[in-house]
Write a structure and sequence with these properties.
heterodimer; A: mainly beta; six-stranded mixed sheet; five-stranded antiparallel sheet; B: 113 residues; mainly beta; seven-stranded mixed sheet; four-stranded antiparallel sheet; 0% helix; 50% strand
């Protein structure tokens, strides 16, 4: 069993829709949770960073972490064609010392104009 | 400011050969990490270096090695290449503030024939 599970999709939604992306994990030592966006032929770009449980909002993006259920989500409101990319969840146990990130497989998202 | 730069961007090797990939971190960043991303998968942690010392190593065979130079740039070496080493190799850097907040380069795409 992988430490981090993520539905690979692909996921296609019409422009303006609300998108929900999710990951589950098995390692209870994870404390830091991130969402990266990766465009084709590019490196991952950090979108959201959350410590422990709770919600965080940044513009059209909202990240939620539920450590009791080992479940994290990313919501995208008013989705735009430019949001079409692969979304990767990532997690780490520490932010000091070995800051190894464990990634999900990524969900490929297409926003249809 | 220049981001994380990696070279070469693409390369093709044959089985059994050796490859060296290079990475220059963001100016002022002293930590460099390497990740392997196989097509359709999330990045997997290979190494982390900080101040020229290895701080973490992922579950990769000894054919993989790396080093960090006094100017904080880094090289990843892979010996005795296998077909399964074909992947996008990502370098990421960070400073000590929020040390698990990584900025990735665009990667070096390695094809092993």
């Amino acid at each position: 069993q992988k430490e981090v599970e993520q539905d690979p999709g692909p996921l296609s939604v019409p422009e303006g829709a609300i998108v929900s992306l999710n990951c589950t994990y098995s390692n209870s030592a994870f404390q830091y949770f991130m969402w990266y966006r990766q465009y084709s032929r590019k490196g991952p770009e950090l979108l959201m960073y959350t410590y422990s449980s709770g919600n965080k909002e940044d513009g059209r993006f909202t990240a939620q972490v539920d450590k009791s259920s080992k479940y994290i989500s990313l919501f995208i409101r008013d989705s735009q064609p430019s949001d079409s990319a692969t979304y990767l969840c990532a997690m780490s146990e520490s932010n000091f010392g070995n800051e190894k990130l464990t990634f999900g497989t990524g969900t490929r998202l297409t926003i249809i104009p | 400011d220049a981001g994380v730069t990696q070279s070469p961007t693409h390369l093709i090797k044959t089985r059994g050969q050796q490859v060296t990939l290079r990475c220059s971190p963001i100016s002022g960043h002293k930590s460099v990490s390497w990740y392997q991303q196989v097509l359709g998968q999330g990045p997997q942690f290979i190494f982390q270096y900080y101040e020229k010392e290895e701080r973490g190593r992922g579950n990769f065979p000894d054919r993989f090695s790396a080093r960090q130079f006094p100017n904080y740039s880094s090289e990843l070496n892979v010996n005795a290449l296998l077909l399964g080493d074909s992947a996008l190799y990502l370098c990421a850097s960070n400073n000590r503030a929020g040390a698990n907040v990584l900025t990735f380069g665009a990667g070096s795409r390695l094809t092993v024939l």
